Amino acid sequence: MTSLAIEIEAYAAKRRRRSAAATTGLVIVMVGVLAVLAWVLLYVAVQGFSALTPSFFVSNPPGNPSAVGGGFANGILGSLIVVGLAALIAIPLGILAAIYLAEYGRGRWSNAVGFFTDVLIGIPTIVTGAFVYSVWVIHFGFSGFAGSLALAIVMLPLIVRTTTQMLKLVPDSLREASLALGASKRKTVTRIVLPAALPGIITGLMLAVARAMGETAPLLLTALGNDLFTEANPGKRMSTLSLQIFDNAISGFKSGQARAWAGALTLVAIVLVLTFAARFFARRSRVAQ
Amino acid sequence: MTAQAGVDVPVVRPQGRATRWLGGDGAFRVAVTACSAVVLVTIVAMVIFLLVQGFDAMRHYGFFSFLTTARWAPSEATATSSSPNPYGILQFIYGTLITSLIAMILAVPVAVSVALYITNFAPLRLRRGLSSLVDLLAAVPSVVYGFWGIFALLPALKPIGGFLASTLGKVPVIGVAFSGPYFGYSYFAAGVVLAIMVLPIIAAVCREIFATTAGSWKEAATALGATRWEVAMVAVYRPSRTGILGASILGLGRALGETIAVTMVIGNYVLSINKSILGQGATMSSVIANEFTEAVEPFHLQALFVVGFWLLVVALVVNIIARRIVAAQAAL
Amino acid sequence: MRIATMRATVVAVGMLGLLDACGSSGSGAGAATTTATTPGATAVCKSTTQNPGYKNGLTKQPNQATSLSGAGSTFVNSMMSVWTAAYASAGGVQVAYQSIGSGAGIKQVQAGTVDFGDSDAYMKDADIALAKGPVLQVPLVLAPVVVTYNVTGVASGLKLDGETIGKIFAGKITSWDDPAIKSENPKVTLPSEPIATVHRSDGSGTTDIFTDFLTKESPTWVTALGGATQSRGKTVAWPNGIGGKGNDGVSGAVGQTEGAIGYVELGYALTQHLPYANVKNKSGAFIEPCNQTVLAATNGVTYPVDLRFDLTDASDPQAYPITGTTWALIYQNQTDAAKAAALINFFSWVLTTGQDMTSAVNYQPLGKDLQQKCIDQLKKMTLNGQPIVP
Questions:
Q1: Touching check for C199 and chain B: CB below 8 Å?
Q2: Neighbors of chain A with 3 or more C-beta pairs under 8 Å
Q3: Which of A265-274, B160-169, B323-332 is predicted with the least confidence, judged by mean pLDDT?
Q4: What is the mean pLDDT of residues B34-61?
Q5: Which domains are present in chain A?
Q6: Which among B279, C253, C269, C333 could disulfide-bond with C244, CB atoms 3.0 to 4.6 Å apart, if both were Cys?
Q7: In whole angstroms, how far apart are CA B112 and each of A22, B21, B107, B211, C370?
């Protein structure tokens, strides 16, 4: 071999070594990120399980905050009610808006709507809470319903975006066939396109609900919380699981912190179940990603 | 995603049935258009309402005095005196920016590396699993991150903080930014938690970008004998730099607005700017969360609305810029 | 040889013990410095107190509402939780109390969004002007604000005087082995740890009590905050430190942070096993906060008609200097008959049966004449202009 060939070979070997080193570096970073994820989830799981008692889901926090036992039953109920109402508001609005963007929209207005939907996703939720305070709470007082309004604003852009994407993935052939058979556009959309995209839409809904369940900041300014008693009337102040975790996490009472860990485990479990169920639906969707 | 919107109603319409068609269809069309307006109306309403609520304070103390004063002392506010402004928010702007900056410095390289690994280096079987796992980081609620942050992260950061204080803290010029003592609650800790929280967002967008770069470029590079790393750098990373910027700014937008996790680890010191990142501070969102429901001093609540207004403005600007960049990259 | 050494050691130790006893009693009697343990205070704390057993409650009003909502002080939260739980099982009325801080409690009362508020800082005239009508302020219970700390190697027994505490919170003393602290605690090994001050990030009556004491005892604190009007209040411009939300947030932060010092209601420190300091009172003795020393702080106090008073820095030689009370805030003129009846019944119960439950959770019952004045205050409640209780 000529010396040039040897040089080239040596340089090639150096490049291969560099590539191998870089790959190893990337693997290390990847493992590091997975390690952080494991750290967070396992820490919550370990702390939560050791604090979890059977009565956690059915009893309220004890009167004396330093007493052991009790649970976050009122918070779990509150979360279900507040998020449920928010979903009732956001889902119809969101799906209809998405139908507009996917089926009817054309031109500057729909471009603006689509663009600002994405922007709304990035608005800090504390600002949403302050907004709902200035619109609703000032006149009607703190209530679970105000919290639902705030969460609906948080959920709405998420629902709009995923539903729009899912609707756009439905093949035009379905629409054309329906129209050719004489159906009106409304019927086409509601009877043909929407059901075809349904599994994907449900994915988006579940992810939005998961996001809303985990929100705390807007509820601080709207629902305010109701520590000790079960409140099922959304017209009054309500506690939610996230608010109770927050209040107990920063307190110094070990028993309160223990309840908060059990609550954190519950909340993470609910969110993960919703997330995995959403992904399961997404995979089953006929309009594959 | 490149499919067209629905096909339009055919031009030729039979008589008689047309009116029934258009009747039902028209109402539906109005309904969906109205619903689509909700998003825009909400954003506009937010800006207006926050401005209106904070207006009294802005008129009393002067519009810009909030941004130029770095002293927040509600106890010094009186109903009549208007100068100096006891509600200076410069330190909250500083807090928001510095914690987001720390988060970006930590998260962006890691997110890009992770996205690059998943799209170009990981075995095919593992790709979906790894993506799902990284996305799981985004599913954990903020309050849980804050809780974990207090009990797991702060003790783990203590040696690092102590190390920074004893080494960088002694360096002449920049030392003041790293000076101790380090008690755990700090801008630094908040930045680390934020980094973990925005990592999945940046990684997800980067993954999208890397996955959609033209395969032909990668093939050409490989055909020319490039190593795996060189292919990744030349054909994937370098053309996507704008997109990575967009993804980072998206993550930045999320970091700017994060409230609960930050409140739990930042120490809540509101009087003035704390020069050391190892010291306690507050952000725009954390001060709203902490003081909103009991703002009894004169103009206190209005001043918090002013904070909220500026936070909204910053978030809007950053998100608009980010979305534009990401859209531009996607159009390539 | 070894037995002889052992005997010598025992004798030596015995003699040291004798010397120690002689020494402390010697310095206790008429000594100029008060750095030795003042035998009086701790001994006082060990004696038992009796439950007051008040019987002068108001007649139970019929047709009361089935629930009441209240909000405010975290200082009283542990006590209020016990009261509301016991009252619910006794009288069947649900009293939902949200502990969000005295400042927030006052705000809710002004807005009329709760049936009653609670604050450890009484409403000033300016606060009442913002309310919807005259407000009855009824003290409910006494409790001390303790100075709690988390110092490596110091399990208990730290002594601090007002000026030292003021200097710490003003940022003038930054390390635990500062000579000022050492001079008050010669027998304690203080590490050279930096001090992390912890204060309230929310509007707090506990802060009001604590800063009232500092204003009276620490000129450094007053100067650092820019004058006596700025150095006391529900919120002050804290020059440094960590902010915690609520009494439980402060106690949580102190427990989590080595080198921390903070101020909380006694119950929080006790239930979380945090040590607290003996604070020097006006007479010069280092006083341990407990039932007896809190009650001593009420000795000789004349209560004004509107029951707005301070108990800090009392002159009784046994008094704990950072003592406070918490006021229930109720609108004098009620418009809802059922709510008015429920309020009278609940607070009458709190002022009588409820006072017997206080010591168990480390609060102190009201003294006899103060309790009577509180009952009289309740009687002032009217329904649409007509007095409720004849």
A1: no
A2: B, C
A3: B323-332
A4: 91
A5: 54-283 (1.10.3720.10)
A6: C253
A7: 13, 52, 8, 13, 68
